[in-house]
Design goal:
Number of domains: 1
CATH topology: Four Helix Bundle (Hemerythrin (Met), subunit A)
Number of helices: 7
Mean pLDDT: 75
Helix content: 55-70%
Largest sheet: none
CATH superfamily: CDP-alcohol phosphotransferase transmembrane (TM) domain
Shape: globular
Structural class: mainly alpha
Order of helices and strands: HHHHHHH
Radius of gyration: 18 Å
Distance between the termini: 19 Å
CATH architecture: Up-down Bundle
Length: 230
């Protein structure tokens, strides 16, 4: 969530856009070469994907915990653990090789966790529905945009601001769940609105990049087997 795999947000066009982020060449429809660990670009049963699935399955449990005991050490600990595992599955993906399934599942898990927790806090009257709806609209729109981009074989690593946006969103939720700060709602609300600004800015950047023609591949890039869109 805060570290990520680099497989997260994508956009068509714009500076730095490449049809092959892991190796030179394009058009083969794969994601990087087969690694020494044996995980190819189409692999599903990878350590990174296993951890991502744990995060996805834990999202409903987290929502129930937030609804029942929003400000508690237990809920905050579970939230911190789930948020921190994003950095771990990112490390695993880089170590064993990125996959198309991981490129889809990792950001999906991030959004399930963040939006699930935020809407639970809206139901508990800790967050206003307005900023959370803005964030949700952007996240869903960019997710659909990412799927469309992947079908065209185009990807770009998440921008720095997009990673910062995800971090600030996690901090806004954590500010409510942490008992030390939970009694100061203005801190969480202020952080949430900072996340809204970053959410809108990064969403606008991706849409602006979509209007630009794709950057040409390097002149010295030679296509080869195992090259693809990420």
């Amino acid at each position: 969530m805060t570290g990520g795999t680099g497989e997260g947000e994508v956009a068509i066009g714009g500076p730095g856009v490449s049809a092959s982020a892991n190796s030179a060449g394009a058009g083969t429809g794969t994601v990087g070469p087969v690694t020494p660990m044996g995980y190819g670009p189409t692999a599903l049963a990878t350590p990174a994907n296993a951890l991502t699935m744990v995060r996805l399955l834990a999202a409903p449990i987290l929502v129930v915990m937030v609804l029942q005991r929003p400000t508690s050490w237990l809920t905050c600990g579970v939230w911190t653990g789930l948020a921190g595992t994003d950095g771990i599955d990112g490390w695993l993906a880089r170590r064993h090789g990125t996959t198309r399934s991981g490129a889809f599942l990792d950001p999906l898990a991030d959004k399930f966790l963040v939006l699930g927790a935020m809407f639970a806090l809206v139901a508990d009257h800790r967050f206003s529905w307005i900023p959370v709806t803005i964030i949700a609209f952007r996240e869903v729109a960019i997710s659909l945009y990412r799927i469309a981009a992947a079908r065209h074989g185009v990807s770009v690593p998440a921008r720095f601001l997009a990673k910062l946006k995800t971090l600030v969103q996690a901090l806004a939720v954590g500010a409510v769940l942490l008992p030390v700060t939970g009694s100061h709602p203005q801190l969480a609300v202020g952080t949430l609105w900072v996340a809204v600004v970053l959410t809108v800015v990064t969403g606008t950047q991706y849409l602006r990049d979509a209007r630009r023609p794709p950057a040409p591949p390097p002149l010295d890039a030679a296509p080869g087997p195992g090259s693809g869109w990420l």
